[in-house]
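Morning!

This is the sequence you dropped in the shared folder:
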Amino acid sequence: MKLISTRDPENRVSFQKAVLDCMPEDGGLYVPSDFADLRRWLLYTDENTTFQSIAGSLTSSLIKEEFSPIISETIATKAFPFEPKVRQLDNNLFTLELFHTPTGSHKDFGISFLVNCLETILTIKGETATFLDATVGELGASLSRCIRGKKHLKAVLIYPRGYVRGLSEEDFVWNGGNVLPIEVDGSEYTCHEIVREIFANHDFVERYNLTVANTANIGRLLPQTFFYPFAFSRIKKLVNGDIYYTMPGGNYSNLVAGLYSWRFALPVNGFICPSTDEIKNDVLGNCTIMDSLVDVRNREKADPASPSNLERLEEIFNSNSAMLKHFIYPADVSNAQAEDATRELFMKYKLFANRATGASYHAALQKSSMLSEDDSALVLVMRDHPALNSDYIRHAIGEAPEMPERISQALRHNELKRPYVSSVAEVLLTMADEF
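The structure's back. Tokens below.
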């Protein structure tokens, strides 16, 4: 599989190039240029097919020019000692739970896969690379866990003052580990600006072989396509009609990943999501992306610090515009409606749902006439453990889920006892001193 930039289809690179040098110089984002038709293989999977097997087979199919089947299987085995869970709530309603992970976040899937892919690539090439990411906690906790013991990878994590959490002191570079946490005397926005400025200096990016662990990196996004074949393998024998997924927008990575799954022939009939300022219905009731009103050549460069996947979504729309306008179904959802839906999920199914899940469920309820046709099934995508949103759930339903110990550890505050920094120059000096 070759990848191209959203802003220059002639800019074709390998998967290895795209994950190592993840921000194209033209300011776009890397996207797959083509997809294999995997329908026959997808139809062969069933409830006994493991997530590791699905991940390994899809990796081999998508990146067969660069990874052998054995290497692909090895990466998946190392990356995924955990897997999603699919639960049936009633005849036609299912949940796809992505939070059965070390930190309780769906991000663990993409980060673990990316880390193990890169470690494999770098081992073969005899090189090293460094992640540079701004975070307020969960990405840092996940990344530091994933790169523990890796010989070719390091991570520089830029935190706002007081937000360092979920790290183990044994992983810090000054203790012989490969994680360099840096606390900035400023806000999360300040941290993002520092990362943006560093990535704008291509000489510095090349010197440290810098990349990111967020979804600006296609290697972090692609493994999210594994969720949907896994869900299909679990429900295919239980449903007789169409299959729809409902999910929160977030930075649109899961929506883009779902559409990539559709492009390699996953049986799916549509995606429902709460409307946002960027994705909504036009006057005819069709899905529209507001950013498309501005030509990509007149936009700011893609953000390496706080990415949005709208430009990737636009690329899919441009390739399949007629169908996709009737394939993504936004629905307006107010805060009150999301809270009502959260209560309904608990009352009917004893399901703890955070605000994002409640909003997704209410969006689907607004499409009930569509879902009632042909005995359609609905899969409710739950990204993060409900305990991460305990205050909201307690307010909505009067009680909250228990906090698993693994998630408590990912939230535990770290006291670095190191000087705060306030500028790019100080970050670069810290990196030079520690590396």
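Headline: The mean pLDDT is 93.

More detail when I'm at my desk.
O.
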